[in-house]
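Give me the fold.
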Amino acid sequence: MVSTGLYCAFQQKRLRQIRFEKLQGTFTGKRMGYRKNLGIILIMTSLLLLGGCGWSMLMTSEERAAVAFKSGTEAYETAEFSQATGFFRQVPPESALYNQSVQMILKIPFQRGMQAFEMQDYDRSVREFRKIDKTSPDYEKAQRFLQYAIFAQQQDLYNDLKGEDRIKALGIMAEMAVELRDTDILSNSLETIGSELSQSSSASESEELMKMMENMISVTEDPEVRKNTLNQLLGDFKKLHQNPNLRPQMFNLIGQIKVGML
């Protein structure tokens, strides 16, 4: 028969063993939970390190195209044109968004040209506008603004020149103003020519300047522009009238302006 002391000692040992097993099981379960969570964390970290590429592997081809197109549109709207081009080129030919992406890419040179034009970087704007293909939806507008940019280049050149070269540059501006038929450009150019005419001391130069005026007045429809030009001529009437070789041309120009104002 087992003594009471031995029995108690045995029970205490058994109890300690059971507690140890339970505790070990708890730790094991926690370790498995930690391993599972660690695995998820590692997967998420890998996806982040891949810069979202991992997520794209879970998308369909059309979904990836839609994301690229949306990103391209957002970059386009914030004038990040290089980034926009890169995104639009990620849209594959088999995508329903491919044609739209191509059209957006074709619009980018025009936007770059306009950006440079607004910054008065006319050299860069000319380069960008000249890149525009005839298939671009903005081709006609680009050609118009290309002429504006070239006119601005010529105006900058005129401001830097002196003597005969200055008058030649002004002649090119006058020709372009006639071609553009823009009221503001015609008005400013006629005012510039009138200023040169007032300062001119050469009969041949004055004759050339009045020819520029004649050509520009012939396409000017704004009565205010005609009136201002007439006032400039009348202000120089005495000086021009003193030269018999300039009188016929001067009277002819004044008559042309007055007839257009009727």
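The chain has three domains: 12-58, 60-160, 165-261.
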